[in-house]
């Protein structure tokens, strides 16, 4: 055999370096890893949210650099430029873009889904690769005596039965720098299986971390969606209170305008001797009181607007106005009976409420914890199978029987000392009881809250009807008193009292309407039937259909 020239065998180190360079080049940058994580997490969140929301909006934890609040803060939009009138849905979006609790909730959901990606990874194929190089010397000087390098690649995977599979291949080279000019290559192949046969056997035990991670994402999505509804309601509550303050100011200004006319008329009548000075002073006194009322109402409105601008994340210097047609639409829709009994509403709530569904599902989690803790009480018996092969020296692709090794073994751990496992099992039983109590307590709390909400809805409806009749009566009284006053049959005080009562009645009617509307929204929120769409905050049609089906 013609010996292979050294020059033909020396490229091996170059090949190893090429492999290492290619492997290193295949690694991602930090920003690419971030994008990869975002893509995977956002896909999980979108899939889970679609189970609970008909048309979920895009989800991201990145701050909105183009939000209206940011544009005001950055100076892109001058603070002197007024904003509005803006509607309720737009206000909800503006607030959600800057609210810190919304951001915290989003980040919590993101991190929970991120944990799931790792749990899925643990039960998938996990590749690995590496390389090493060593230079060795033994003389007193700095002269090296030998050099070695190696590369390896492999994988591992956990199966549903609990078995762990590990495989690897490796290539190494060695050269004695004082005695040889050639590299001596060698390769190896290894494969092993570890299978638990007693404790830890089966998919129910093995896949529990993945199962819990999947369920944690579902819980967090439910909590996030419930928070979104609660958050939207809180913005709606503030929004309609501002509209109520607008209406109160408008009533006060209208009353002041009428009192100015009355005061001027009384002065003219007094100058002609047809009206006493007392009645003139009465009109003036009420006019002054009305001016104070306008000032107070305007101050109240401005305070509510400042607080609302803060909720929207807007600078307080911005002149904000709201879409008052939102209140007009509520007035036009009027008051409608819910048309369902308390038992029907409670039954629907216990079916739809995300927090209650989480509490019930956590009972199942606790039951699985008990099962796993009971499994840990058993002894463990593991089956180990190893197969390894090493190539012939200098021939990395040549294998023979002398380089082949295998082993089969059993590893038994008798359940003699199980104090820690015993305590874990007992603790799991206690946690199960606590989870059952928590779900039962929440069901009772939901029922009590809904019954109180339904009673409040009835009382708000009655208050609205009363105030509606009160306004009609006050308007008729003002009309008749005005006619009698012009005919000289009543005094100024009678007309002033009638107009004061009309202002009070109108303010009370608006307050009663807003109270009823918010009580209705709160009820839909509490039965998980509140939807924010493109135009309004409204009840979920699917929930209303479910209530109707229950009636039938």
UniProtKB/TrEMBL annotation:
<dbReference type="InterPro" id="IPR003423">
    <property type="entry name" value="OMP_efflux"/>
</dbReference>
<keyword id="KW-1134">Transmembrane beta strand</keyword>
<keyword id="KW-0472">Membrane</keyword>
<dbReference type="GO" id="GO:1990281">
    <property type="term" value="C:efflux pump complex"/>
</dbReference>
<dbReference type="InterPro" id="IPR051906">
    <property type="entry name" value="TolC-like"/>
</dbReference>
<dbReference type="GO" id="GO:0015288">
    <property type="term" value="F:porin activity"/>
</dbReference>
<dbReference type="GO" id="GO:0015562">
    <property type="term" value="F:efflux transmembrane transporter activity"/>
</dbReference>
<dbReference type="GO" id="GO:0009279">
    <property type="term" value="C:cell outer membrane"/>
</dbReference>
<keyword id="KW-0998">Cell outer membrane</keyword>
<keyword id="KW-0812">Transmembrane</keyword>
<comment type="similarity">
    <text>Belongs to the outer membrane factor (OMF) (TC 1.B.17) family.</text>
</comment>
<keyword id="KW-0813">Transport</keyword>
<dbReference type="Pfam" id="PF02321">
    <property type="entry name" value="OEP"/>
</dbReference>
<protein>
    <submittedName>
        <fullName>Outer membrane efflux protein</fullName>
    </submittedName>
</protein>
């Amino acid at each position: 055999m013609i010996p292979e020239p050294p020059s033909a065998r020396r490229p091996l180190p170059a090949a190893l370096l090429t492999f290492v360079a290619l492997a290193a080049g295949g690694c991602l940058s930090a920003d690419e890893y971030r994008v990869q994580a975002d893509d995977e997490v956002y896909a999980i969140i979108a899939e889970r949210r679609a189970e609970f929301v008909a048309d979920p909006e895009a989800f991201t934890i990145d701050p909105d650099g183009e939000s209206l609040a940011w544009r005001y803060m950055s100076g892109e939009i001058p603070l002197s430029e007024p904003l509005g009138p803006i509607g309720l849905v737009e206000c909800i979006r503006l607030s959600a873009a800057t609210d810190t609790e919304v951001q915290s909730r989003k980040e919590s959901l993101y991190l929970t889904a991120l944990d799931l990606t790792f749990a899925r990874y643990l039960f998938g194929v996990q590749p690995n690769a590496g390389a090493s190089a060593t230079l060795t010397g033994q003389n007193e000087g700095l002269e090296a005596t030998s050099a070695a390098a190696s590369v390896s690649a492999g994988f591992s995977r956990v199966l549903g039965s609990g078995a762990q599979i590990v495989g690897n291949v490796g290539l190494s080279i060695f050269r004695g720098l004082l005695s040889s000019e050639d590299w001596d290559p060698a390769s190896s192949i290894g494969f092993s299986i570890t299978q638990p046969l007693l404790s830890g056997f089966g998919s129910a035990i093995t896949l529990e971390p993945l199962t819990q991670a999947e369920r944690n994402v579902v819980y967090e999505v439910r909590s996030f969606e419930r928070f979104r509804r609660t958050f939207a309601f809180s913005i709606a509550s503030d929004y309609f209170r501002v509209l109520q303050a607008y209406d109160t100011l408008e009533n006060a200004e209208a009353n002041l305008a009428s009192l100015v006319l009355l005061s001027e008329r009384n002065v003219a009548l007094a100058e002609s001797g047809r009206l006493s000075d007392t009645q003139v002073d009465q009109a003036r006194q009420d006019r002054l009181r009305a001016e104070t009322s306008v000032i107070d109402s305007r101050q109240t409105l401005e305070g509510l607007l400042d607080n609302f601008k803060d909720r929207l994340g807007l600078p307080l210097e911005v002149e904000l106005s709201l879409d008052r047609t939102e209140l007009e639409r509520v007035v036009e829709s009027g008051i409608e009976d819910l048309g369902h009994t308390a038992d029907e509403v409670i039954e629907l709530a216990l079916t739809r409420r995300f927090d209650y569904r989480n509490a019930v599902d956590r009972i199942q989690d606790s039951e699985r914890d008990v099962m796993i803790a009971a499994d840990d009480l058993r002894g463990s018996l593991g089956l180990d199978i190893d197969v390894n092969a090493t190539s012939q020296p200098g021939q990395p692709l040549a294998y023979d029987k002398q380089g082949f090794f295998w082993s089969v073994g059993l590893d038994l751990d008798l359940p003699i000392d199980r104090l820690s496992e015993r305590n874990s099992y007992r603790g799991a039983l206690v946690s199960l009881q606590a989870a059952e109590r928590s779900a039962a307590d929440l069901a009772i709390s939901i029922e009590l809250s809904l019954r109180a909400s339904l009673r409040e809805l009835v009382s708000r409806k009655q208050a609205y009807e009363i105030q509606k009749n009160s306004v009609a009566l006050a308007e008729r009284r003002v009309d008749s008193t005005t006619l009698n006053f012009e005919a000289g049959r009543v005094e100024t005080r009678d007309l002033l009292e009638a107009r004061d009562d009309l202002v009070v009645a109108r303010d009370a009617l608006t307050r009663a309407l807003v109270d009823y509307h918010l009580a209705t929204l709160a009820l839909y929120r509490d039965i998980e039937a509140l939807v924010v769409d493109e135009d309004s905050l409204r009840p979920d049609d699917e929930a209303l259909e479910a209530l109707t089906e229950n009636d039938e």
